[in-house]
Amino acid sequence: CSDGVRLAMKCWRNFDDGVPSRRKILCLHGWLDNAASFDRLAPLLLRSLSRGSDDDDDDDHDADDATEIIALDFPGHGLSGHKSPDGP
């Protein structure tokens, strides 16, 4: 953050390092929640978006299916830092 608060996030992907993701999905949690809220949803979403979703946990994904899901912890939630009471 621009005010020095450290933000944490979780990331799920259906591709290997070095492969650019074609699709990025940003998940934002609700009040009194955190990025872990998406622990069960993200893998299911990746599977449903993959063309090979009919195959049994096949790790071979087409480059067009390369999807990255990012869940952010807002300041003061989950593993993110807290804002200073004196700050903006």
Question: Which terms summarize this structure?
Answer:
88 residues; alpha+beta; three-stranded mixed sheet
Largest sheet: 3 strands, mixed
H/E series: EEHE
Mean pLDDT, as a whole number?
A: 83
Strand content: 15-25%
The gyration radius over C-alpha positions equals: 16 Å
Strand order of the largest sheet: 1-3-2
Question: How would you describe what is shown here?
Answer:
The chain is of the alpha+beta class and 88 residues long. The chain is built from one helix and three strands, in the order ββαβ. The protein has a three-stranded mixed beta sheet with strand order 1-3-2, with helices on one face. The N and C termini lie close together (12 Å).
Blueprint of the fold:
Elements: E1 8-13, E2 23-28, H1 41-49, E3 67-73
Entry summary:
The chain has one helix at 41-49; strands at 8-13, 23-28, 67-73. It is α+β, with helices and mostly antiparallel strands and 88 residues long.
